[in-house]
TrEMBL record:
It is a multi-pass membrane protein. GO terms for cellular component: plasma membrane. The chain crosses the membrane at residues 40-60, 80-100, 159-179. It is found in: Cell membrane. This is ABC transporter-like protein.
Amino acid sequence: MSGGHIPFSHKGRSAIHAIPSKGSIWLMLKQMFNRVPSKWKFCSLVLCIMLFISLLEFSIPQLTQFTIDKIIPEKRYDSLIWIGAGILCAAILLAILNYFNSYIVSKVGQKAIMDIRNSMYEHIQTLDMKFFDKNRTGDLMSRLTNDVNLLQQLISSSMLQVLTDTVTFIAVAVYMLFIN
């Protein structure tokens, strides 16, 4: 947290009782995302993987539709094996890509959280003793630990789900415009 400001506390109030305003939440998110630029190549890799995941998730229903609309009415049952193999390969590839995507996001998230924890530690080292007289150590530890854990959940799971759903929505919307 640059400038000696820690977004987890407010001047004149105990850090444990501070309720973040909308502005401070955006400030916290902005500071968190400012730690990510050194990892943009990983972020772009995650976006590419998400695009492939969206395409694969969409390909399975399309293969099923093709089977129901074309293969079964035309009684080309020999093609069912190939379509079944295609669906199985798509599902396996989907599982592998989801694993790697989660791994990369977790790794980037853990590094960002480590940076945040180090910044908080450095900031706490610069605080006056008066601050520690006003605020109980347990309250401070609880507040800082809970805030960092919430950020960790945001980075590793919530953000991944939101990004994946957004990319999938865009891919499906483009496809729907294409076929209509």
